[in-house]
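Lab manual, section 2.4: Encoding a predicted structure.

Procedure: take the sequence of the chain (143 residues), apply the prediction step described in section 2.3, and record the output as structure tokens. A sample record is shown.
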Amino acid sequence: MPEHIFQTTVRVLYGDTDAGGVVYNANYLRYFEIGRTELMREWICSYSDIEKLGFVLPVIECWSRYKSPAIYDDLLIIETTISEVSQLKCKFSYRIVRKEKGTERPKLLVKGYTVHAAITKEGKLTRLPEEIIQKLAKFSCNP
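Recorded output:
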């Protein structure tokens, strides 16, 4: 288990569900973003601070494995870790779980990751600022 796991919660909205009454698969990418954004805000810096430094971190790769459905009004726990850091990109890993009544162990619903490249506002690949690399590496599972 990684040492630095950031946790945040989100409640499933009715609008997040599909005709079958479960969370629509693409909405988990939004939940990943919530976890990542809050981790960054708490441990590194806000995305608006990153933009002030002259770059952005778009998703260049994502993957998810769906294990069990979430439904309307579930309270989900988003566990986010920084799993890789380099001069040009970083990778975040996620687990979305739900506490189950009568058990201490939460139920794994989805796991996945996103990879982000540093680019200028003009769209050119750039190096992450050293101060950002150091902060990310401090909380990374693989420094």
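Check your result against the sample. The chain has a mean pLDDT of 94.
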